[in-house]
Recover the amino acids of this structure.
């Protein structure tokens, strides 16, 4: 899994790192948990600069974040409901969860964006409610960039650490670790898909009382 990532980064350097992180944010073919440690290994081997890797990874991810923010903002939350009603089962989310998140987001939007940028899977999705609820653009950029930089820096640092300590055996580690990360993410999704249930719909009596 990691071989072609290494090859792309070797050939294109920081642009490759930025492109992979942009792609991961817009349409996640591979997780950042694989991309940035691989780039960190390259930095440890001296082919790239550590801070340059972190900056390019953060920049690429932020381009993807901005894409989803403006896409969601232009669509609006009302037009998103039919999509959730139809495909929510596969996203393991229903409209009740959207409404609950909407209320919380209205009070703690900036904090949610910052924290979510450091959580697997959620970090790529948080741009959508931020756009739907029209979080102030300046707040979105500032808190997204801070959270993304911390997440990207931590993953890059982990790869750099591996590259420094296991320079001659790095291939023995990167491949298995990358495959384990992919397997864990897929297993987590399948687990939620199997056991997820939508919130029970309110009865007509309950709605009348409400």
């Amino acid at each position: 899994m990691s071989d072609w990532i290494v090859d792309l980064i070797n050939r294109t350097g920081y642009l490759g790192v930025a492109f992979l992180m942009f792609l991961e944010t817009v349409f996640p073919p591979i997780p950042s948990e694989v991309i940035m440690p691989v780039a960190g290994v390259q930095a440890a081997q001296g082919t790239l600069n550590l801070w340059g890797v972190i900056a390019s990874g953060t920049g690429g991810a932020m381009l993807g974040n901005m894409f989803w923010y403006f896409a969601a903002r232009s669509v609006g939350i009302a037009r998103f409901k039919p999509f959730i009603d139809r495909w929510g089962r596969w996203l393991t989310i229903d409209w009740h969860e959207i409404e609950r998140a909407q209320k919380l987001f209205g009070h703690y939007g900036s904090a949610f964006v910052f924290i979510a940028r450091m959580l697997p899977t959620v970090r790529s999705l948080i741009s959508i409610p931020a756009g739907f609820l029209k979080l102030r653009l300046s707040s979105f950029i500032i808190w997204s960039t801070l959270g993304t930089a911390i997440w990207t820096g931590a993953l890059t640092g982990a790869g750099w650490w591996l590259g420094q300590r296991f320079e001659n055996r790095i291939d023995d580690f990167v491949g298995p670790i990358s495959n384990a990360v992919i397997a864990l993410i897929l297993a987590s999704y399948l687990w939620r898909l199997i056991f997820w249930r939508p919130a029970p719909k309110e009865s007509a009596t309950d709605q009348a009382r409400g």
